[in-house]
């Protein structure tokens, strides 16, 4: 009986989660439950502030029924992306809606002083927006490095020089759990939340990263090395040197660091490209050649959609995408539809958003 009661409670909550607003009768009809059962569970969910009354539904006859909706802000989650010179903090709710974004210029250091300073910024965001710390499920930190399966330790962090850093360094300054996530996994989580499909997600920002989504889950192992396709070499002997110590890695040809000159930004680069700057056009054509080769190598490994995510995705217009697909057609071994390449939906702050999502999804699955 207890199991049935819990199932009714969960089913009513998740039915409301997938609908804007419903009445008691609509819930009873949809789930095949009695009105007293629905009423009891709605009262329980209301007492826990998980749902709320949301006006009344239109009715052609009789009294208008009270409408019920999810309280999407009952619980919140924090996501943080750390870079060498700055960090971005975001707050999302149960609907994966971004409620706040804050970027702060704070140089990264593997130290308690840095962790305390970042925690101060997190608390400022919460206080400035009027969010109760007790509503926070946890904070996820997107790291440029390999993370253990529990999210507690950086197993390999060459870019930030943070190998061995532990999440407890940050959680000691915050009243809620803190976990680490590989930054490319965060981008994949953000993309899946926006458009749930399996595939390979490419995180193309300052650095190149990738993650695989299989059966709705991001592929992870205890070693943290899943999906590190950025270190597949396309020219191991004479290629460009990579920070990993090898040569010719995809990272060295397809990251934004490999495309942009030190004084350029993405905006300025594509502005010059639009003005038909010959040098910029040549550089971008070479970049697309390398990107096509890299994508095709991944496609030969596993035939799933390949989603271009990260900061570059905002600039992949239809003409640019067609240029990329034209290159894929030219190098394709087999006759096939080259439209397996798609553009992502979350271009801005994808790492910070994706780092916050696991705490939300875990809470929803527990209700």
TrEMBL record:
Keywords (A to Z) from UniProt: Carbohydrate metabolism, Xylose metabolism
Organism domain of life: Bacteria
Signal peptide start-end: none
InterPro entries per UniProt: ATPase_NBD, ROK, WH-like_DNA-bd_sf, WH_DNA-bd_sf
Family named by the database record: Belongs to the ROK (NagC/XylR) family.
Functional note: Transcriptional repressor of xylose-utilizing enzymes.
Protein name: ROK family protein
Native source species: Limosilactobacillus antri DSM 16041
């Amino acid at each position: 009986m207890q199991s049935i009661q819990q199932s009714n409670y969960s089913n009513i909550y998740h039915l409301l989660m997938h609908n804007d607003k419903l009445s008691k009768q609509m819930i009873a009809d949809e789930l095949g439950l009695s009105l007293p059962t629905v009423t009891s569970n709605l009262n329980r969910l209301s007492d826990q502030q998980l749902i709320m009354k949301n006006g009344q539904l239109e009715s052609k006859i009789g009294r208008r029924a009270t409408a019920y909706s999810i309280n999407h802000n009952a619980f919140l989650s924090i996501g943080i992306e750390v870079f060498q010179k700055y960090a971005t903090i975001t707050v999302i709710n149960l609907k994966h809606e971004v409620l706040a974004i804050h970027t702060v210029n704070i140089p990264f250091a593997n130290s308690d002083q840095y962790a305390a300073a970042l925690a101060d910024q997190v608390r400022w965001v919460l206080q400035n927006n009027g969010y109760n710390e007790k509503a926070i499920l946890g904070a996820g930190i997107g790291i440029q490095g390999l993370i253990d399966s529990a999210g507690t330790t950086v197993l390999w962090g060459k870019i930030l020089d943070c190998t061995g850093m532990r999440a407890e360094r940050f959680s000691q300054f915050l009243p809620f759990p803190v976990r680490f996530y590989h930054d490319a996994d965060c981008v994949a989580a953000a993309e899946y939340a926006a458009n749930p499909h399996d595939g390979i997600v490419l995180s193309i920002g300052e650095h190149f990263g990738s993650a695989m989504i299989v059966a709705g889950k991001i592929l992870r192992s205890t070693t943290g090395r899943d999906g590190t396709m950025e270190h597949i070499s396309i020219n191991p002997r004479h290629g460009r040197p990579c920070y990993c110590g090898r040569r010719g890695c995809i990272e060295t040809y397809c990251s934004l660091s490999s495309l942009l000159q030190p004084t350029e930004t993405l905006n300025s680069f594509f502005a010059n490209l639009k003005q038909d700057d010959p040098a910029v056009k040549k550089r971008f054509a070479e970049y697309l050649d390398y990107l096509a080769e890299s994508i095709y190598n991944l496609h030969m490994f596993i035939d799933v959609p390949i989603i271009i995510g990260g900061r570059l995705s905002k600039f992949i217009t239809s003409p640019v995408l067609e240029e990329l697909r034209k290159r894929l057609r030219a190098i394709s071994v087999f006759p096939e539809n080259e439209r397996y390449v798609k553009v992502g939906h979350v271009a801005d702050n994808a790492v910070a958003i994706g780092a916050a999502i696991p705490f939300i999804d875990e809470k929803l699955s527990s209700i």
